[in-house]
Structures
1.
Amino acid sequence: MKTSFILSAADSIRDAILDHESELESLDRAIGDGDHYINMKRGAAAITELHTELATLNADAALNKIGLKLLSTIGGASGPLLASFFMSMAKVLKEKNDDAITTYAAAFAAGVAAVQLRGKAALGEKTMLDVLIPVAQQFSALAASDSNIKAICQALTHTAEEGMLATKALIATKGRAAGLGERAIGHIDPGAKSCQLMINAVCKQVLANQP
């Protein structure tokens, strides 16, 4: 993975978050703390401000730096969760030190596992993991089967959307929404929506770079 791609993907993620301001704010007002969009916007802006510094680093070092920046920039629970994701990805990339698609899948899976461990959450609890876990599982399976990049991106985009939409029918057991009980049913989890947007943005960036 080239650092230039990470920077382009970060810009795409920032744009996706900004483009969905009203939707994210509406979702968070319904079942969250009301600060999800602000935190995501702040984190995306912080990464953009690091571009010049990140451009001089290897991909693993850049991801680790992003993680550290998010940890000190984003408030609430999102900061430590996203920081764990990027820093765990960085560790795998550094250890593997190759450009195999299976390495990228392993790095993503490690990031998701770190989020799961830190958040003490699992699939089906109406959180971002309802998007991240299925995507990580499918990414690993498709990478191992030598699927082409286009097929992988299309599948992951679809799986992310399915996971996000599935949170609408779930009862939350983590975070502020957990206190709402059945009243949270009918609302999409804002963290799941943000993850779906980010995965979609990165996949679009990957496809745009294909010959």
Note: The domain at 3-208 is CATH 1.25.40.340 (Serine Threonine Protein Phosphatase 5, Tetratricopeptide repeat).
2.
Amino acid sequence: MSVRPLDGITVLALEHAVSAPICTRHLADQGARVIKIERPVVGDFARTYDTRVLGQSSYFVWANRSKESLTLDVKHADARPLVNALLERADVLVQNLAPGAAARLGLSFNQLTEQHPSLIVCDISGYGNVGPYRNRKAYDLLVQAEAGLVAATGDGEMMARAGFSAADVSAGMYAYAGVLNALLLRGRTGQGSHIDVSMMETLAEWMGNPMYYTHDGQASAPRSGASHPSIAPYGPMLAGDGRLLLLGIQNEREWHRFCTDVLGDPQLAADSRFCNNTVRTQNRKLLDDKITACFATLTVHEAEARLQEAEIATARINSPADLWQHPQLLARACWTTVVTPAGPIPALRPPAPNNCYEARMDPVPSLGEHTDALLAELGCDRARIAELRAAGVV
């Protein structure tokens, strides 16, 4: 088997929900050993978010493959020696417990760094370790609201959440990048480091364009549904067979070609109401009506063929379910199979494949599946494991 970049790296994960599990799953994809600590009996509460995948949570099977599940009540006095033994073996600690919980458990970076100077500690929280919002609850949609995403999404007067856990995923991906950076830094200095990931800050970074659009007191871009708020034409158009097709014009060269080769109206390109992007966005409704009038004479396949012939960007408006059979994902061999406790499921390979190695795609663990093996690795014999179970430690 080819060497993966994180082979030999051990990650201890005190995690739940989405943000930290997404970070550590990506680390596992690259070869890291991820030991996921879960509460005895109940486990990560994301296990019960829904039952959409063979009776299992869609969130959990997505974010937790290739991990080892260890049930451990980290608040129990008898758990601390086990946690210490795990820390001795760990390169990275990732946690997204409630604000202050890691410190109360003696697991903050400042509490650990003297005994474990090479340990990398990554804290993921809603608003970071300092500031007036530090102790606020920070569920994904709440952070979407605070970071401006809800206000920027929707149509007209109707605001909307993003269609996925944008704040959680942004935090998880920046945590993943932060851990990789910290591992590179440790390779140079030999020292561990602390990473403080805030869902608010990561999503605010992703909101950079809408934020700068309001620079110096200017108005926010209007909510424009599936259309681009500041480029026209750029959005869904209705074909004559009642199906939608999304198209996008990026520059004036494309605009002239669109008018001539798609709409069959070269004079429209020079019309003072549409001759540049600024006036096109001001007259968006009138422009959309003209495009729809042309597309009403075409099926969606005919409209798509014209757009492609004219080299105008276009896309089908797929549902999430359409991704299972998307021809590009199939052609790129993006799908593989992952084992779960309830049976095998299809899974996307990690993005950005590397020609030197295959990403790790190991099973999604059942709750506590690896507890006995890990305890034995830490030096516990069968009798001690039985005692820990009887006491509710594991």
Note: The domain at 234-316 is CATH 3.30.1540.10 (formyl-coa transferase, domain 3).
3.
Amino acid sequence: MKPPTETGALGEFLISARSLAEYRVIFELDDTDLRGRRILDCPGGAASFAAEAAELGAQVTAADPIYARPAAELRELARTETERGSAYAGAHHDRYHWDFYGDPDRLHGVRLAAATRFGADLTAHPDRYVAAQLPALPFPDNNFDLALSSHLLFTYADRLDADFHLAALLELSRVTHGETRLYPLIDHTGRAQDDLVAHLRKKLHDKGIPTVLRPTRYVFQHGATSMLVLHPNQN
């Protein structure tokens, strides 16, 4: 693994490669959440979720601005970003619970396999990957049965303000007639975002979008024990 370039902060937005197995525990997904469902993964990053979930009958659309890049460049980016993220986690070992992965080498292996699978699927099924960016998505209202969003909102609260978060959550709710699930609710350094979460939940409630906090089995960062779930807009 390459050495990390920062000692305390992750730096630029990390393009992560996560697997279906990780998505299952992060978002508490079972087969009924996947089979025959239209799912938005935003941001999709270099995850293999779209490819793996398709084998179970899900119709996944991954949205991310990085998909505007050529496929060959994205495949290489997925690999280098996997190295960067794995090196960061290994260098900050004490910030994480390692029960799910075991150790940094295992984490690196899981993420590299996901990045490789993503690269192959990007070539085979480019229609699954839409170049789009929150808080404005090119999808019709109520287009998806379920929306999943991890490691952008709240994770980068140091550079994405409350107005951006609210606009993004409203947009995810607009394009989804079912639940929107978001994780984690802490930033990339491990700082809790309780005040921001409470502020956004009130704003969403005022707009007719009920929310709940739901525990998750996936705990990698210390304190990242729950996800925010938005229910369909009731207006």
Note: Residues 178 and 232 are 5 Å apart (CA to CA).
4.
Amino acid sequence: MPLELGIVLPTFNERANIATMVDRIARALEGVGWEAIFVDDHSVDGTADAVRAISRTDPRIRIIERIGRRGLASAAIEGMCATSAPLVAVMDADHQHDPNLLVAMLEALRSGDYDLAYASRFAAGSSTARWNRPDRERMSGVANDLARKLTGVELSDPMSGYFMLRTEDVRSRVDRLSGIGFKILLDILATSKEPMRVKELPLDFAAREAGESKLDRVVAFEFLVGLYDKWLGRIIPTRFALFGTIGAMGVLVHMAVLFAFFQTIHVGAGKAVFTDFAIGQTIAALVAMTFNFTLNNALTYADQRLHGTGPLLRGWLKFALTCSVGLLSNVGAGALLVEIGVQPYLAGLAGILIGSVWNYALSSRFVWGKFG
């Protein structure tokens, strides 16, 4: 039958959920022309292979495996742009979103009375009892309140990740979507030039069936990042702003280490001053670099975060290598300034500023991968 609905399911380490989710979608959409597009961020558990195995006997199942690109919002955007269906839905693959609601969403859009239908965890008739995460529920409530105040989007759950709209509506505004953070629905609503007619459906939000949630306490930070990107990201690039903020914190760490170093040694005179400063500046730069790497991995590149001892160690080494020229210019410029009589702390600060732009440009590309 003609293709009417494309369903986008962003995944990361969801292998155990794939087959059962496909079965639930098929039963819910009997009599509807549909396809499911799984957008996988190169999962290590074989999620993409599990999708391919099903697609060999069911052509409605497709896989986009992204290499070097990560993030829930950007995955949803890629998937929505990949379908040729006139309607597109986004939902999780972990069974927290009930596929049976797709039918009600479909009917709302078919009627022509609505531009978008979505499932709300907080609408009348909804339930989060099976979720059994009061901490997450409180966090979501606070985020929703803030979203309504800052964007003017008057929905009970603008942070929902389960919705459906016309594909042409996505394509018409895709160049204005930020693709950063976890909540693409809020981005779509805030980007719309005209208010969208929205159908709200109550959701019985379930506990995930297998695997671990991709969201953690950094989700609140990601939410604020998304809002920043929406309103100021075209003035100062979001990741650069975050990188710079953490870099400023790294400056404090750097100067504290440099101060501690000078307090614990007897600074010499003449050439000894140059040598002592170079040693102290190098130690301080290495400590600050480790501090910056740790926070950038957790916050600036939370959607591309490195996990595990091996990836973290390799990431730190790449970060150190890509920052090595910045480190050399940092130490060299600072030491040169000291040699010509500039106060050591001012020279240290000047060295930091000289190396910062280089550090951002190369670490973004070679450590965490280019955002896309």
Note: The longest strand covers residues 5-11.
